[in-house]
Amino acid sequence: MAKAVLRPTRETRVRSGHPWVFASDVDRVEGAYTPGDVVNVESSKGTFLGKAFYNPHSQIALRMLTYRDESVDHAFFQRRVETAWKYRQDFCDVNSCRLIYSESDFLPGLIVDKFSDILVIQSMSLGIEQWKKDIVEILVDVVKPRGIYERNDVPVRRLEGMEQTTGLLWGEVPDFVPMTENGILYMVDVKNGQKTGFFLDQKENRHEVMKLCKGARVLDCFCHNGSFALNAAKGGAASVLGVDISEDAIEVARKNAENNGLSNVTFEVHNCFDHLRELTDAKEKFDVVILDPPAFAKTRAAVESALRGYKEINLRGLKLVRDGGYLVSCSCSQHVSTQQFTDMINTAARDAKKRVRLVEMRSQGHDHPVLPASPETRYLKCAIMQIFD
């Protein structure tokens, strides 16, 4: 087996438990290998540090698999999948959940989402791609799904030297998969929807927000397929308005409302930045305003610009909340820290001449566990705040 030798002092990151080693930290690779192979990882002094996928074409050259000198084979991946499935059965609603969350489940680059009896896979590292056939066999054996679909139409695969692709991997998969979350029925577009078809990371946050909405007038901006809005409606809101720029997403949201018999929610197609301004100018007021935009910062270089965007929508959102009402503000931008997000809200509140009381700063659900040694695994911020004039 080939071995990757790190530069002097560069092993600290690995010893601390972080699963990534950047190309600039690798001194040399000794022995024959093919990109994506498993290699031994050693310090500059020859100390064994673990085993990792190696891809010389990626900025993340090494993705740690294990810190023990053990065989990485079919049985290895079987144990990892079984451990991930057992964890979800212990802590999560397994009707719908993220079954495997990449590095947090010690399977770097692998995402598996479960929607009822259908699994959707994304393999975003060259190493895990080479084990995809084994992983599909293991998932069939362990989870026993009706079908497995591949959604590898993600740009990050190009950074690993892989093509984008989608398609059926096993069994049968319908175009739309019925799934229940928090007692709400959704039809998940696993073949053409965003990412794997549905954003599972906010499940527990949506349930928490539901508690705020009884008798309330609610605005949900960037609503996508309506999940926050539908939870608000099911929670007994007097009225809910969901807004998104995507006509396709709004059409799905309307169908979801109809399928659940929810008549207290409406959905409209608008640019949320513009519509927030229009509602503010019209001096509209809501008891609960929800802001759950897509990631504004895909890279560290984009953070400053992203914070300006977050401030703009939060400033508008704050002005729309009645005295004593609630603002729920989210960011899924990994590169924006919780402190930066909180500071942005403080600045927006000052400019809006509002006082903010933080009820809770939440993150992603239990099916998206966090590695303390890897800050990248905690990306979601969900601030529930009470707003005062």
Written description of the protein model:
The protein is an alpha/beta fold. It has 3 domains: 3-66, Archaeosine Trna-guanine Transglycosylase, Chain: A, domain 4; 74-178, Transcription Regulator spoIIAA (2-Layer Sandwich), CATH 3.30.750; 199-388, Rossmann fold, CATH 3.40.50.150. Helices cover 29% and strands 32% of the residues. The chain contains 11 helices and 20 strands. The protein has helices at 12-15, 74-91, 126-130, 132-142, 156-159, 203-210, 227-234, 247-259, 272-281, 303-320, 338-352; strands at 3-6, 20-22, 26-30, 38-42, 48-54, 60-66, 96-101, 110-115, 118-123, 147-152, 165-171, 176-181, 184-189, 217-221, 239-244, 265-269, 286-291, 321-331, 355-362, 381-388. The chain has a 7-stranded mixed sheet with strand order 16-15-14-17-18-20-19, sandwiched between helices. A 6-stranded mixed sheet has the order 2-6-5-4-1-3. It has a 5-stranded mixed sheet with strand order 7-8-9-10-11. A hairpin with an 8-residue loop joins strand 7 (96-101) and strand 8 (110-115). Helix 6 runs parallel beside helix 7 (227-234).
Structural class, please?
Answer: alpha/beta
Fraction in beta strands: 25-35%
Number of strands: 20
Query: Helix content range of the residues, please?
Result: 25-40%
In short:
The protein is an alpha/beta fold. It is built from eleven helices and 20 strands.
Key descriptive features of the protein:
7-stranded mixed β-sheet, Rossmann fold, single chain, 32% strand, alpha/beta, Archaeosine Trna-guanine Transglycosylase, Chain: A, domain 4, 389 residues
